[in-house]
Structures are given as C-alpha cells and as structure tokens.
Amino acid sequence: MSHLSFHRPRRLALGLLSAFALTLPLLAQAQAPSLETLRGLAAQEKPALLKTMKELVEIESGSSDREGLDRIAAYISARLQSLGGKVELIEPPAADHYKMFDTPEKPGRIVRASFTGRGSKKILLLAHMDTVYPRGMLAQQPFRVEGDKAYGLGIADDKQGVAVILHTVALLRTLNVQDYGLLTVLINGDEEISSPASRNTITRLGGEHDVVLSYEGGGGPAGPDSLRLATSGIAAANLLVKGRASHAGAAPERGVNSLYELAHQVLQARDLSDRSVGRQVHWTLARAGIVRNMIPPAAEASADIRVDRVADFDGIEATLRERIKNRLLPESEVTLNFERRRPPLQATDASRALGAHVSALAREQGMNLVVRDTPSGGGTDAAFAALATKAPVLEGLGLRGFGAHTTDAEFVQIDSIEPKLVLNLRLILDIAQGRARW
User: Fold this and answer.
1) How far is CA 80 from each of CA 175, 186, 206, rounded to the nearest angstrom?
2) What is the rounded distance in angstroms from the CA atom of residue 85 to the CA atom of residue 382?
3) Contacts of 194 (CB under 8 A, 6+ apart)
4) Is the pLDDT of residue 333 over 60?
5) Which of 191, 192, 261, 418 is catalytic?
6) Taking the model in full, what pTM does it have?
C-alpha cells in the first residue's frame, strides 16, 4: 500500500468530521426555541413594549399632521436602526400619489427597514403610524393604564402594531435568529386616508416577498383573538349636481333646483347593494343650497362602497355613470367622481394554509384564535400587498383592543401582549426555518 493510499481513509474521516462540525451550528439554528423559553422572553419584553406604546402615543401623528408624522417616523427609524436594520425614509414623488378628496399636499413618509439573514424566505411586516386624530387632543387624553387596559389615541389603530413589530424584531435579535433571507419592516404614514402615497410601494414590496404579515389589531377586548385572511374593498362615489340659483319666492321658475336633481339621482342609485356577494352601496352624506329662500344652485352626495371582489368596483362605477345620464331636470349638470380607496383582500389557498398553521400554533399556546376568511366590512393596507403576489397575506397579528376612531375610549388589552409576541416569534421562526408550508 502506498503512503498516499494509506492516509486516504484517515483524511476522508477527518473531512467528514469537519463537514459535520460545520453543520452543527446550522442544525442548532434550525431547532426552534421551546415554548417556555419564548414565554419567558415575552414576559421580560412586556414592560418595554408598554413603554414603546406610551412613547408612540405621545407623538401626535394625524394623517394630515406632517410635522407629527416626521417626528414619529424619526422615532421609528432610530429604533429600527438600533436593532441593526438598514433604514430608509421614503417620500414617493407627487406623480406617484393616488389623489383623493382628502389627500394632503404632503402625506407622511414611509419607514422601510431591511434585515438580511442567511436563509431564503423573504418576509414583509406591515403597520402604520398615522391616526385619525387632529393635533391637540393628546393634552386632554394622555396615555394611561387602567387595570389590564392601556389607553391612548391611536394605540389600537395602529401604534400597538408598530410596537409589536419593533419588539418582535428585538426578540428575534435576542435569539440570534437569521434563518430568513430578508425581513422587511414597512411602516407608512397615510393608511387612515387610504394610503395615497404608499400604496404603490406596498404593492411592489408585496410582490417581492414570500409572505406578508400585517399588524392591525387582532381581536376584541374579551376575545377571541382573530386572524383575517379577507377584508373588504372600499370606494367612495361623489355625485356633484350643478343647477341655477333664483329667488325661491319671486322667480323659482328661473332656477334649476339642484336638490331635486340630487334626490332623483340618489333614489335611482339606491338598489346597487347585494349582500350575497358582499357588495354594499350606501348613500351617507348630502348637502345642498346656500340659504332657505334661494333655489339651490349646487348639491352633492357621497356613497360609501364596500366590495369583496375587485371586479365589483368596475361594475358599480359603470352602472353609476350610465344612470346619471337619466336626469330629472334636463338643464342640470351631473358629474360623478369615483375613488377606489382600497382593494379587497381575498382569501387564497396559500393564506388559508398559513392561517391553519397559525391556528395550530395558537392551540399549542392555549390561545383561542379564530381565522376569518370572509370580510366583515373593514379594509387593510395588506390588500395592496396582495395585488402583486400569490403568496400568503395575513392580517390581524397585533394586540386585542377596542375603540379605534373614538374619543377617549381607545385601548389595548395588556394581557394580549405576551401571547401575541410568542405567536409572532413562532410564526416567523417557522416561516424562516421551513416548518410553515403553503
């Protein structure tokens, strides 16, 4: 036996041992932390998450308050940078905005943070930092804790979602989890006004990721926790009628009564709802005239529109445009402005499969979680992400709470913090490490 051949088996054994040694960290990495370990970490994180919600609530950030939105964006950016994220503040150009009646001149910027791992899965986490509340309300309604409730303007919708993302990422860092390929956090500042500046960015990123997790509230205060696979699409129809003013007593015949025409238009468009397919068209606002003794020269009405299917937007708009051609007063002018404010999120086989996985995780934790795959009337930014992907899109991974869009009644349930942190950690770990399938 030659000298070379004599050493070959020994060298082969050493090579196998070296290869095995190199795989040990990867094998260890693929093992999910125990449920008890994650519960302990979540319990330790709970006070810090409460503090984060307080700090977020104390920055007023109404959708039209650019100064407040800049402040909260800076706060979130700094937090994400401290966690190791590559952070950018995105200001989409005006040409990229979808203009609606309530779109401010400068909507809030988008905070995007990227965390690069060693795996392959790309995961997008969504929340929003804007609220419906105007500047000045904080002074009368500061953050407070009463029993098992934390109160604050915007805390349920959606500052809790921002806080849950920040502390989920922090715990992933504590666990040294890098099994994902890319973890992207996107926090926008215009959700409450139907995301005119951020919708295209959300759609593009949805198409670039393998899964989208969105952090609006996850159930009412008494439970159960809920996960949503479908939400409603939202549109607005605005009818504008132009008539002609005249003295209501001395020369009414010289006028063109815009209020009469508006009433005619609304009445002939009152039959467009079909609850069996999730289509709702309700006329909710109207106004006309200037003073009592003048034939009204102008009138307008608005309808709130909800759909379960994207195609229903086209059908409703086409029907309305055809019907306004039928006028009560030929001299009147009737125009329609149709705004597609938010598409529906529709349940898919992929989202149902991942939803079932989340449900199984929740059962293991002793959580009562309901997975809903039919809309209940609300909308979500996650629907924009779903437009460009067949990947699963889940909504409602935030805390349980109540009182969104109310005054002095908005709160989150403190006892939902720990189980939701644990659930989110387990979900992201299972996605990254290949245990979640769809």
Assistant:
1) 17, 11, 20
2) 22
3) 98, 100, 234, 339, 341, 342, 379
4) yes
5) 191
6) 0.89
**DSSP category for residue 336:** E
The three-class DSSP label of residue 374 is coil
Is the pLDDT at 306 greater than 50, yes or no?
Answer: yes
Say if CB 161 and CB 398 are below 8 A apart.
yes
CA distance 379 to 343: 8
CA separation for the pair 394, 396 (Å, rounded): 7
Distance CA 333, CA 325 (A): 10
Indicate the pLDDT class of residue 11, thresholds 50, 70 and 90: very low
Cα 147 to Cα 397: distance, rounded to the nearest angstrom: 23
Which amino acid does the sequence have at 316?
I
21-41 pLDDT tens trace: 444 344 344 578 999 999 999
- Token readout for 308 is 């379960």
Is 130 part of the annotated catalytic residue set?
yes
Q: Cis peptide leading into 224, omega within 30 of 0? A: yes
CB 199 within 8 A of CB 269: no
- In this structure, the number of other CB atoms found within 10 A of the CB of residue 423 comes to 25
CA–CA gap between residue 139 and residue 192 (Å, rounded): 22
Catalytic residue among 130, 158, 225, 430, which?
130
Q: How far apart are the first and last CA of the chain?
A: 55
User: Which residue from 157, 228, 206, 196 is spatially nearest to 341, judged by alpha carbons?
Assistant: 196
